[in-house]
Amino acid sequence: MAEAHFVYVLRCADDTLYTGYTTDPERRVREHDTGDGAKYTRGRTPVELVHLERFDARSDAQTREYAIKQLTKADKESLIDDSTVDFDRR
Fold this sequence. Notes:
The chain is an alpha+beta fold and 90 residues long. It has helices at 25-33, 58-69, 73-81; strands at 5-11, 17-22, 48-55. Helices cover 33% and strands 23% of the residues.
């Protein structure tokens, strides 16, 4: 079975949003929370996973990650409002 690729959005403790790519969302959120994630999220913990998208191809996930990063915060908030994060649906 092919490895799944994910794009995720975190809400940081300071109410900023962080977008990233991973193959294991649960592990990656833990890493962000413990300070082992991206430099941006260090000092902004705890973080909350607020949006998650699954892709079969890494290139598709990374293209989507870039597209989300280009959105305004208002547009990201709309994306989050329309999403349901459920690790069991992976």
